[in-house]
Amino acid sequence: MSKQATTGADSGSRLRDTAERQHAGELEALARVDDRARPARWRLSPWAVVTYLMGGKLKDGTVITPKYVGNQRLIEIAVATLATDRALLLLGVPGTAKSWVSEHLAAAISGDSTLMVQGTAGTPEEAIRYGWNYALLLAKGPSREALVSSPVMRGMTEGKIVRVEELTRVPSDVQDTLITILSEKTLPVPELNEEVRAVKGFNIIATANDRDKGVNELSSALKRRFNTVVLPVPETMEEEVGIVQRRVAQMGRALDLPGETPAVEEIRRVVTVFRELREGKTADGKSKLKQPSSTLSTAEAISVITNGIALATHFGDGKLKAGDVASGMIGAIVKDPVLDRVVMQEYLETVVKERDGWKDLYRACKEVL
Amino acid sequence: MGGAVTVLGVRHHGPGSARMVIRALDAVEPTAVLIEGPADATDVLALAVHEDMEPPVALLVYDPERPDNSAYYPFARFSPEWQALRWALKGGRLARFIDLPPSHRPALKRPEAGTGPAGTAPEPGAATEHRPDPLDALAAGAGYGDGEAWWSQLIEERRGGEDPVGLFDAIRHAMEAARTDLGPTPHDPSEPIREAFMRRSIRAAIREGHERIAVVCGAWHAPALTADALTRTTAKRDDEALRGLLRRKTEATWIPWTYERLSAYSGYGAGIASPGWYDHLWDHGDRRSERWMTRVARLMRREGLEASPASVIESVRLADSIAALRGRTLPTLHELEEATLSVLCHGNPLPMRVIERELIVGARLGKVPGDAPTVPLQRDLAALQKSLRLKVSASEMVLDLDLRKDFDLSRSRLLHRLAILGIHWGTLRDDQRQGASTFHEVWTLQWHPEFAVNIIEAARWGNTVAEAAGAYTADRARRAEDLEELTGLLEHVMLADVAGAVAALIAQIGSLSAVISDVRHVMVALPPLARIMRYGNVRGTEAGLVEPAVAGLLARVCAGLLPACGSLDDEAAGEMRNEIDSVHAALCTLDRADFLDPWTQHLRKLGDADIHGLIRGRAWRHLLDTGAAPAEDAAVRLSLALSRGGDPAKAAAWLEGFLGGSGMVLVHDARLLSVVDDWVCSLSRETFEQICPIARRTFATFENPERRQIGQRLARGSAGAPGAGGGATDDYEPARGALVEPVLRMILGELP
Questions:
Q1: Which of A260, A240, A267 minimizes the C-alpha distance to A322?
Q2: Looking at domain A15-230, which CATH architecture does it have?
Q3: Taking CB atoms and an 8 Å limit, are A77 and B517 in contact across chains?
Q4: Pick from A2, B286, B616, B683: most CB atoms within 10 A?
Q5: Cβ <8 Å between A350 and B555
Q6: Which tens digits make up the pLDDT trace of B599-616?
Q7: Under 8 Å CB-to-CB from B80, ≥6 apart: which residues?
Q8: ipTM of the complex
């Protein structure tokens, strides 16, 4: 029972494959040319891990596809953190590729990205420590056999990277069970009067969203045990428009939305509004703006556009117009009925109204607000 | 040729270069040290070893006739030129600046626009747009990403050990190769002339019989100044190149400088990104990561942030490990910053700003000895004092200025400008501080000796009073954190008529008002701006610039006022009413429909919103006053607010808002009076008895005579037509008039 059995179809028709299977070829090629020092139980050297994530061309000509599009320095900090056996906390708003990065880091370092705890409001302590097989427990009493290990426990015994997704969604008392594991690198099992000691190579990558509502802030004691890397929203306008466009096209296919491909112009306007409010200044950098309480992530921009397309397809003439995105956009921005309203109103009056060719958006927003 | 010339090519403000220069000088033991710096400043060089001299300082070379024509040459204690200068002066060797003075060049450049010792040099670290940076080119050859990192790692952050002279030889060879490949610097046409001038100065030193000569210059110039180069380029050719240069007489002095002005952020052409870090490198050759992180942690604790020693250890470990991953032997500032952000700040970039300001840039302010020659600002002030006939005296003197006269206006401007610079020579009489509307100013002048120090401190902002006041205001505007400070500053600047600063201030007001969440602060800022807009033109200043700012603030007030009035207690409502009053008054004085219309529309919204009665009542009152709403509407609202069955406290508040503090207005404004009177008359007996205590709360606040007069007006009004403005009645009773006649006669004296 130590190995999680992957049941289901063969790899061909799986909805999604693990990172280490998808990129097995690249990982092998990297391992072949990698002659630098590897920390204990790492499949690759830190340098090779960075190359795996950022992409590049190896000496033997193998091309490594970039997994993370963004600042290489951030990935270097993340890998260096794991190499110093400090736990890594990836922070960022939705759509900044936190889980993506953590999965690929685990795949590259341990060759296994499946040791994962999904954090939710209902995550129990057992998911981080261990549980019991009650039938066995009743039949034979407490024993190693009756113990059901958590992904964290398995990672400790096998010396692998364990991922904890959405750590801030986990209740505070459950979060704090990580403290002993991170500082002492042991997991006591008082029922059996023994403890599980982590072997080298074990480490934790946690991801969290610090700006959302409904999160449990990490205790300072836990925070101190993590090195934090903040993954930023896409750096340039073009990058973000590109991401939104790609994702909208994919989702349109998945949802079988018949409409034509969305107008880049409309995407660009939504992304502009989101970026300006998120950064608290206009795109030309000339005037400052108040920021709303909502995070305005790229993921939300994507959903505004898909909603707009759905509206246009089912109730309009199939073409995405300002009116179709306005209500979705206002809904995404005005999360606090009083404060955000002021923000949006000011933004409309001082920025949108004045901008050339944005009159339709201004009118559409005024109607909704 | 007798002397042996050792050329030490450095990077300006590089601590590693400075350390290597000292070691090289110790090894070579030159009798003359020639430094790349303006040759006409040689007179004041000796002050560099004065015991009161404390870097960062700047050498200021200026034209005594036109003090705004000048150049600054900043030095920190880790500047190689500074260390070489002190090495020579302390050892009693010849120290001389040998670069072509900027005043000799065809066109004298503006200060800081590329004239520093580094600015004129094609700075090895600074990228030029026109061609690849020489360091980048060399770094690319060595497999580095950028030249800055390459040079820092190789030279600035190296901990020494090898032969210093050999290292400088290597630098020179590298630069020689770069010069051959890249050609001369396109953006500095004076480069060949400057190098010719430097060569001539070196030859002069050789002629004077110096055996061993060390030349400290920017690395780029090193290949052009060697003994080889001296023979290759003959004295004759250099003399020819230098023929026909303009010469102007200049003077030089030292002024205090700051690390902030040394940093690239301040616009200094050859600025460095991190003076504080370089300072740290200069102090600590070894264990510098540990010391740096400890300083960061101490700073964070001082700011009330958590920074445990355990975290310091972890951040040093992380910095080391990132450095190892990047193939560096030691962490550089980049790695240390990243480790700080990740471990100590938990990914929060806010504390990094404090660290940046306090440690990476640093807050060090230099000092210069009292006996340094006068600064141009002093001269400018003296000239102004003379031309404006303002006597410098330690005793008080009263000055009455009529601003309609040009001469007095200039005097007023000077005093206001000095006040901006913190030199409070004149104090404006208290009752005159407010209101730019007057053309009359009364000053009290008194000169304090410490002003001399203030002037030297202010000298770093500019060489004339006007220029310094402008630069200083711009700097303060950048740092200001609240609108009130900015508008106050703006009023000052308008009075002082500081060129250019107004636009910067208004831009800053615009961007600050956008992020302020409390609309009351915006409301506080609006009236002074409106005042400037209305009256500023009296003084002929740039009042027109203020208009967009007022419009912007008004838009924000209108967007945010209603929510801000949402849940106010009595006290807060009172304050809000005052703000609304002053904004309203300001807009009324402007008397512009494009400002008043949106405002009254907004007042109408306020008047009918579910908010504190005080505000609603006041909104209706303003609407009534401006005529934006018909009196009938106001009357309806009045009886609605005071109708029976409502909460008496709310009704009282409404009436207080509507009438509060305006007893005199009721006496004279027939319209308002009739609205109130009609309402009272329409009440039934029971209703009146119920309302009476509430109404009393407001009416009781009026002065006794006010109340009496209101009563009289009403008594008279009810006899004649209601609301008719206080005309006398025609009934004349001669018998009663005759009664007072004898008394009048007594008072006026017997009439003939």
A1: A267
A2: 3-Layer(aba) Sandwich (3.40)
A3: no
A4: B616
A5: yes
A6: 888 888 888 888 888 888
A7: B8, B10, B11, B12, B14, B17, B18, B20, B21, B216
A8: 0.78
